[in-house]
Design a protein that fits this description.
Length: 275
DNA sequence: CCTATAGCCTGACGGC
DNA sequence: TGCCGTCAGGCTATAG
């Protein structure tokens, strides 16, 4: 679930619930794999996180692609970096009876509420860093898919000359950050572009359509708080299953592999690059 | 530079 | 019901 629109929804959720409250305590549950350091593992990251965060409060949030950054600004400049992997999220609650399953890292606020970082498969990551910008730089992430600096020209240049399949490029977080498997399919579907066409075989009009569609799709999804059921009827996302049908033309959806990930396509509506 | 694959984890689902 | 294989909205390392 967590692609950029989902992470953006979670960021707003954290912002609305958990800022400026003293972190009275932290609890880790089967979280070792999530707490690794870059680079290499650290013997007691949990201890270090507690030392760094307990007694302080979250102050601000940012997001870059699928990464969420939560900063604590009193005195030391420190930031918590959160990635949610394939399945995970946040939950704010009061009664421990409402603690969600797979709660791997819990913040116990002094006001009696709790914030859970949930990760079913432990494929996410928790990092204690100085600030988001430096982290993004170090990881060599591309610009956020909706960043202003990624205007059409910058987008075009990032795809220029690449002989990689267009969907693989959209998924590559070094090219641009935030698009995952589901939204890559959605964007390509809405733009009428086949996922396996090579980027250097798209003409400028295709690239422009792709850029504009990407904005439209991501902005719409954020607006709907990334709830798949609330997306427009014309969207592909709700139909990505075994016997799904194109919401536009009714054709049976096709399935292809790109970058070892499953792609759903409408063979009729995504002709650009299909032959 | 490009593609494919395995591995990290765990749960859900289908087939036998 | 139990067991097995496959798949899943991510990412990295590695090999060719």
């Amino acid at each position: 679930m967590p692609e950029m629109p989902d992470v953006e929804a979670m960021r707003r959720y954290l912002e609305a619930t958990s800022l400026h409250q003293e972190i009275g305590g932290m609890v880790f549950q089967s979280a070792n794999r999530l707490l690794g350091e870059d680079p290499g593992p650290h013997p007691d990251v949990g201890r270090r996180l507690k030392d760094a965060l307990e007694g302080r409060a979250f102050d601000d949030t940012e997001r870059h692609g699928k990464w969420m950054f939560v900063s604590l600004k009193d005195g030391r400049r420190q930031t918590l970096g959160l990635h949610f992997g394939m399945a995970g999220g946040l939950k704010y609650f009061r009664d421990m009876a409402d603690e969600p399953a797979y709660d791997r890292m819990r913040f116990d606020f002094s006001n009696g509420y709790h914030l859970a970082y949930v990760s079913t498969r432990k494929l996410g990551a928790v990092r204690l860093i100085e600030d988001g910008d430096a982290f993004v730089e170090r990881k060599d992430l591309g610009p956020d898919a909706l960043a202003e600096e990624l205007d059409f020209d910058a987008f075009r240049r990032r795809l220029e000359g690449r002989r990689t399949m267009i969907k693989a490029l959209l998924l590559d977080q070094h090219v641009l950050a935030g698009v995952g498997n589901v939204y890559a399919d959605e964007v390509l579907y809405q733009a009428g572009i086949h996922p396996r066409i090579k980027a250097n075989e798209l003409d400028v009009e295709d690239v422009r359509a792709l850029y504009e569609t990407m904005h439209e799709v991501l902005e719409t999804a954020i607006d709907k708080q990334a709830q798949p059921g609330d997306l427009p009827d014309s969207y592909l996302t709700a139909h990505r299953h075994e016997d799904g049908v194109c919401p536009r033309c009714g054709a049976a959806l096709g399935r292809v592999k790109v970058s070892s990930r499953r792609s759903y396509i409408c063979p009729k509506c995504q002709q650009t690059g299909s032959r």
